[in-house]
Amino acid sequence: MAGFFNVIFIAIFSIIAYLTNSDFLWFKYDLSAHLAFFSIVVTLVNTLVFVPVIKNKKELAAKIQEKFDTNVLSFDWNDVNVGDRPDNEDIKLYAEKFKEKKNYSELKDWYATSVANVPFYVARFLCQRSNLVWNVGLRKEYIKLIFKFSVIFGVVISVFGLLSDITFNNFVLNIATPLLPILTFCIEQYRENKDSIGNLEKLKQDMNSYWQELLENKDSMENDVFARRIQDEIYKNRKDNQLFFDEIYDRLKNKYEHAMYYNVNQMIDKYNKS
Q1: Is the N or the C terminus of the chain less surrounded, counting Cβ atoms within 10 Å?
Q2: What pTM, to 2 d.p., does this model score?
Q3: Which sequence ranges are marked TM in the entry (predicted)?
């Protein structure tokens, strides 16, 4: 989320530069050159420092999650797709950092415990589907928030421009243009998460088809190749998809957990009755 904070800093600096160069304050000072220099520095730092660091941390986090899943769901480690296993030292360090802020009890039994009532390959499928649907749900909520923020932000800026006693040229150069990175960031976030949702929805359709086949023919549907393919896609999704704020996750966690557990129980009932 470094990109988000970068554009916020630029936007705040832009507003300050506009105010110091207007008649709103008791003094006047032109910060245009400072704003240009600040924007260049922020852009370079983001590109050269934050983006590579975040990419590496996302990949490490995805590997740690993959290690957990390979143990719980009994997969062999995919060296070609995932690469080297994460070091236990790294896992321990991040686990201790997590404990400083939250409690492990929040993560206990994340996968529904009711999957113990069906054959293992069915339980594994239900766990993978839960992971997939959970991700889709959170991202749909996130792009709704992004869309609302973009609309509200655009309306506020437009109203400010109409009500302010400034020329159109000054509005475009001193307000709209410097604040454009925020809207650009929101549009990029919306599109990238929309694409991620589209890919996950296609994968979900494949899993739904497999589920129907599994219900119709229980004895011949233990498909390890399909399960491995789904797991590879889950890892890719974790590694490549855009991050969003922990606060969004925390706010939606209970809602989606309850829905996930309910659906798993419904699918188990359907399987046992088929």
Answers
A1: C
A2: 0.76
A3: 7-27, 33-54, 145-164
